[in-house]
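User: Here's a chain of 276 residues. Predict its fold as tokens.
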Amino acid sequence: MTLPRRPKGFMFDLDGTLILSDRKLGGYSAIPGAAETLRALDARGIPWIAMTNGSAYPASVQAPRLRAVGLPVRDERLFTPNSVAGKAMLERGYSRVLVLGTQGVVDALTEMGVPCVLPEDDGAHAADAVYVAWHPECTMPHIHLACERVLDGAAFLTASDVPYFATKEGRSFGYSCAINGAVARVTGVEPEPCGKPSPLALPMIAEELGVSEQDVGVVGDDAVAEMQMARAGGAIGIAVASGSTSHEQWEAQPPERAPHVVIDSVQDLLAALDIG
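Assistant: Prediction complete.
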């Protein structure tokens, strides 16, 4: 596998690529070499951002936690599915979005100007859009309400429909994927993902980096989330074996999810791309 061209900017995944967290998302450890790689890109004037499929916290909360473990991630360089979802919701003019997620999800969308309601709020039964995100406290009444709204014609969006993410304890399943499955099974409507590999995400990433989509180096550990997005958008897929996917598993990926190159971890990025 070889790169079709050298990237002019990079998007880095978080879990399994730059960090490993615990399953409750309460504690982070930086992957060796991650901080040094990011600082080296800064020194060379090469733009980069970090984008996670995790939706539990807004960037203003999560970025300081990344800096606390040594990663030079400023708030404005960290993006979540909420960043993409909020932009789409505002452009589409939803009047009320039912959020199945934590207060952090609501805060992130509200900061962008999206009118949100939680399942227990007045007006939840009149929502014209449903957004499923990180929601460990989800209950059957929440799912029932979401199904009602979708069956009544509300738009159905989600932060992520990827089943797993890498943690210190191994693979952990994504709450949003499980909730999506329940709502989709009842309603027959599949959710529109806003995080990776959503077609909504790569254009925003390229815009933030100031490069074309074809010049974005997408660095990640997940074949669906990162590599499928890179392939579908004509970007450059750079896979790491430090998270949820091994070298052997990368070799077995179909063309639409195959990376252009596989490295052991992000600390090998500069050498693999011959960025001196």
